[in-house]
Each structure stands twice: as C-alpha cells, then as structure tokens.
C-alpha cells in the first residue's frame, strides 16, 4: 500500500535508506529497508532480529514529533508502541527488478487517562456482549439453564422443613444428633444414597453403592469429632434377589471397614409390587461417641480462621436428580468417555458411580493434633448451604474457587446442562467433600502432613465478618 510520505529527521547517517511515512490520523509510520540484491530469503528473514534492534535505536529520533505531555494527575499520558506486521516483498519495476526490501510497520499511540478508561469500558462492553452471545449459543445447543428444582428437588423446601422440625424438637439441624451419655455424647446420623441408585441399576454395578451408604452417615457424625462405633442398614425390594443383595451388603461391609466401625445389624424388607423389578432402596444409620470436652461444635470459630478443604472423589451421593436430568437432555450414554479426564478409559458412568469418599480416619487424625474448631460435610446444598451451618451468628466465609482442582465430571455436568455457577455451588460439592475450620498454625501443619502422606488438602478460604458464603 502506498502512503503519502513526509520526511522527518535526517537519515543520512543510517546504514539503510529510510523512507518514513506519517499518517496524521493514526500516528503511524512505515519504514522500508531495501537490502542488497540477490540476498536469499533465509538470510533476509534472519535479519529481522537486527531490524528490531535498529528500530529500538531509532525510536528517540523518530519520536521527536510526539512531545511528552506534562505528567499531572489530571493529564496522564500513556504511550504504547505496537508492531503490527513485518514482511519482505520483491520490487517489480524495471529499475529495481531484483531488489528485495523488508518492511516494518509500527504504531505509536498516545492515550490520555480518560481515553484509556473509555477504551477499557468499551472492551468490557465487548466482553459482556460476547459472554451473552456465548450463553445464547449454549442455550440453543443444550437448552435453557437447568436447576436442581427443575429436576424435582427443592432445597428451600427442605430447609423450611428442617426449620419446622427444629421448632418441635430443639437441637435439630446439625450434621449429627448428640445424646448425653455419661462423660460423652453419643452422636447419631442417618442417610440414604438417593437417586444414584438409578445409575447403579442401569449399569448393573451394585458392589460399591454400599460404600456410599456408610459414607453419608459416618461423614456426618465425625463433624462433631465423634468416632463411629457401629452401623445398621435397611435394604428394601419388591422381590429379593439374593445374589444382588449380597453385592450390596458387600459394599456396606467395605464401607464399615474403611470407617473402622462394626456392621451391627440391619433389616431386609421384601415388599411385592412396591418397587420396580430389579430395583431396591437403601438407608443407613451410624452411631459414634465423643468426650464432652472434645466435642466440635463451631462455637470457637472467629474471624481469620482458615478453611481447609479435603477433596472429594466426585459427585458423591448428592445432586443425582439433576445429573440424571442432564443425562436425559444430552442423550449421551453412561459408557461414553468422560471429556477432559486424565484417565482416558474413564467413562461418564464410572465417574458418576465413583464411591463417596470416607473421611473418618483422616479427619479424626487431624482433630487429634488440635486446632480444629469446626467441620462441615459438603453434601446437598454444597459449600453455599453447608458451611453456614457450623458458623456462629455474624460470621461467614470467603472462598477462593481457584484454590483447588475441580474434577472433570463437574465441568461436564455444568457445560452439558448449561447450569449457572451459583446453582452448581448450591447443588454439588464441586470437588471439596469436607471442610475443616482451623487456626492458621493448624492449617500450616495440615498442609505439610497431608501432602507428605499423599492425602491432598487445600486452603480454600477464611472466616470473615458477615453471614453467608462469598466466592472470589
């Protein structure tokens, strides 16, 4: 492209002939370096480094027409130099038919502080517009954003029921129920596996679902610092398949082994026509004990205390009604590979059915070392609803969402279901299955010992004034 030229400065002392082109509206210039005849393209390209150095040395003389503005708060001037392109071309005129020249175009832009702010505002508008466009594109591809309530689970209704029960039976609402027994408390918890069972039915895998059953109860009672003592189960089906039931109980036994507690008994209920063929339901009950002076209730938590998160093994046993809604909408199969997973052979079904991690031994070891003030089991409600359950009035938490690695299964669920961040954080554990509120000294010790023992732990935030959970 030809530009109207305007000579600026004396180029007689320079090693090349320089033609500078000045464009008043854009403050651009074009510098052309005719090279020797018959220079090979390889040598020509390698000279680019020399040209850049030359440009740097020429910058003071070439910038004489751009006087610096006074450095005042009300008149701050920003100078930005940008190299747009570099290329070499062959001159086709008869006078220079074999000359090659290397051209370098650059720009010097002067922005006032006000102009810089205006540019930043415009850039922000473009980012927001692009984000809206991407959201519309995802909605067109995956449908409207899904919520837990869309899948049939109303967290707010559950919270309201707990509030009403607490009015009738004061003390209800913790992760485990405490019963005074001599110089100790007996701590009890009960739970089920939920609609994760539906995936077990579909995949025909029944020997791990019992681990989930035990985990959901024992993980609740250790939040008080209690050691699980024994566990009982309830297995119900329309027609008893002995081989299938044996596989389920096998998982329960393994869960009790990991929890260092006894499988004390249980109930097998055969109820014709109540369940679909081949299906069953499970529930479990765990009881533990803790000395009264050692009970952990969150009452000593204060501003500045550290939140240490222990990683989950995946979705655990909550949010599967929403997971199944996503599966139904997407049309993918449980045997399809999970995108973004380092383990290439991991399928979506395997990732979803991964047993809930049992934290009993790890957490009780950390409690024994001291400095633990509160413990939250991150189940239904996620960090958003479960952390406030252990804080004294007037205290909340600030969470750094980039402080831990989120398992690929959550990314797949969110993108496939077009689920908002807030909904994900209030439905799933997002990779953190247990949170300990500890002193800063205890946090340092935990990070060192857990990493040495190949047990990951993350500092995910700290306690702040004000209630609720803030993500950053």
How does this structure look, described?
This protein is an alpha+beta fold. It folds into 3 domains: 28-116, no CATH class; 143-156 and 297-472, PurM-like C-terminal domain (Phosphoribosyl-aminoimidazole Synthetase, Chain A, domain 2); 174-295, 60s Ribosomal Protein L30, Chain: A (2-Layer Sandwich). It is built from 14 helices and 14 strands. A 6-stranded mixed sheet has the order 10-12-9-13-11-14. Strands 4-5-8-6-7 form a 5-stranded mixed sheet. Strands 1-3-2 form a 3-stranded antiparallel sheet. The longest helix has 30 residues, at 113-142. The chain starts with 27 loop residues before the first strand and ends with a strand.
